Amino acid sequence: MTRTRSRVLVASLLAAGVLTGAVGCTAGEPPLEAQAPASPAAKASAGAVPAPRALTQEQARAALITPGDLGEPWGATQGAATWRDGVLKANTDAPDCRRLLEALYTDDLFGKEARTSAVTGLDDPLDQAQLRYQVLALDPGDVDRTLAWMKTLPKKCGTFTAVTEHGAVRSGQVTETALPAIGDARQGLRVTLAGEAAGGEPTVLTLDVVAVRLGDDTITFTHGGLGEISADATSAVAQVGLSRLDGIKKQGRVQV
């Protein structure tokens, strides 16, 4: 995504009102994690709070983002990007880096224990960028352990070497990606894999990896391509996605 189009994306989300504040925060209030917990008496006076419920399959699908959220030229995916097999299907001697590459290639960051999940893929054909977006229902403790592991990767996989299935050598790097203060827990990474294309031309795959937990539900996505990938656009996608998930969860509580 070019800088111009990334600014357009962020501006459109601002206009839609989804980037005015983090989910769970209002003007003049600190984030949820900074607020003092209510006393038992206050909780009692406020009445019983409905217990959290896992999203149904229909609700999980409704919480997915759509091409309309991102605007042109984004559209429904036409299939896995060519760089997925050509670059991500790679091996490395470093165990944590190998685990990361496997998770990125299979879109399986949290394993196979999701109780409810929905997934969508979006393509930007102009920049050969692809967005793979999932809504998952997982044990919060399991999610937080994965987020804690992700946080260690900029140190463990700051630089590493990977070899693709076809024997091409790629120089890998993992850095942390800043995210807005949304949800109950979150982590973002930027993974780059640099090497040469078949014709000898230098290529760099850039892939932002994001996971945000809200209660018992988690959104996770990758935003990547062979062109420029905007960190601002990645943060915007995280915020609009979390806002939609929060809205779906609130609707579910009202319907109980």
Topology at a glance:
Blueprint: H1 3-16, H2 40-46, H3 57-62, H4 67-70, E1 75-76, H5 82-88, E2 90-91, H6 95-106, E3 117-124, E4 129-137, H7 140-156, E5 159-164, E6 169-176, E7 185-196, E8 202-214, E9 217-225, H8 231-255
Antiparallel strand pairs: 1-3, 2-5, 3-4, 4-9, 5-6, 6-7, 7-8, 8-9
Proportion of residues in helical segments: 25-40%
Order of helices and strands: HHHHEHEHEEHEEEEEH
Radius of gyration (CA) equals 19 Å
- Give the tally of β-strands: 9
Query: How many DSSP helices?
Result: 8
Mean pLDDT value:
81
Low-confidence stretches: 14-18, 20-38, 40-49
Structural class: alpha+beta
Fraction in beta strands: 25-35%
Q: How many strands, which pairing sense, and closed or not: the largest β-sheet?
A: 9 strands, antiparallel
Shape: globular
Write down the oligomeric state: single chain
End-to-end distance:
42 Å
**Widest sheet: strand ordering:** 1-3-4-9-8-7-6-5-2
Tell me briefly what this model is.
The protein is an alpha+beta fold and 256 residues long. The protein has helices at residues 3-16, 40-46, 57-62, 67-70, 82-88, 95-106, 140-156, 231-255; strands at 75-76, 90-91, 117-124, 129-137, 159-164, 169-176, 185-196, 202-214, 217-225.
Textual characterization of the structure:
- The protein is built from 8 helices and 9 strands.
- It has a 9-stranded antiparallel beta sheet with strand order 1-3-4-9-8-7-6-5-2, with helices on both faces.
- Strand 7 and strand 8 form a beta hairpin.
- The longest helix is centred in the last third of the chain and has 25 residues.
- It is globular, with a radius of gyration of 19 Å.
- The protein starts with a helix and ends with a helix.
